Amino acid sequence: MFPARQLVGGLMRIFHTSSKRLLSNKSAGVSVCFKTSEGDYEVPGNIGDSLLDVVINNDVPLDGFGACEGTLACCTCHVILKKSHFDRLAKPEDEELDMLDLAPDLDDLSRLGCQVILSKEDKPRLTVTVPSTVRDARTL
């Protein structure tokens, strides 16, 4: 908490601010397993978070993952989903498909992690594969 002082109408008011989030519309409860060529990383995720959010929030060591920070300007968050999960998702938009066209190791079940949002249907556990080759489409 950070105390602050404000002079209002000749009176000194003291108030406190906090960086702690008091309310959240996201609920926890999805365990996400990222399968990589270097091993598996299992971390918690919140419903409403993208897979990119999960990687960032948990400091998952995936080199270069999400280089464009979810702006659909690269394909570094390319993941391969299980068919049951892939089929539950809305079809990808043209912008995502354009970036996926540039992704190495493209698969019929490929999506960009920044566009895959966790839902209650993903409980209790979701497994995704992260291809071993990463290419930043912004450098092509």
The helicity comes to 10-25%
Our measurement of the CA-to-CA distance between the termini, rounded to an integer number of angstroms, reads 46 Å
Secondary structural class: alpha+beta
Secondary-structure element series: EEEEHEHHEE
The major pleated sheet works out as:
5 strands, mixed
Estimate the strand proportion. Answer: 25-35%
Report the total helices: 3
Low-confidence stretches are: 15-24
Shape: globular
Number of DSSP E strands: 7
Rg to the nearest angstrom? 19 Å
Strand line-up across the major sheet: 4-3-7-5-6
Average residue-wise pLDDT: 85
Explain the overall architecture.
The protein is α+β, with helices and mostly antiparallel strands and 140 residues long. Helix content is 14%, strand content 31%. It is built from three helices and seven strands, in the order ββββαβααββ. The chain has helices at 51-57, 83-88, 94-100; strands at residues 2-8, 11-17, 28-36, 39-46, 78-81, 110-112, 125-129. A five-stranded mixed β-sheet has the order 4-3-7-5-6. Strand 3 and strand 4 form a beta hairpin. The radius of gyration is 19 Å and the shape is globular. The model is unreliable at 15-24 (pLDDT under 50).
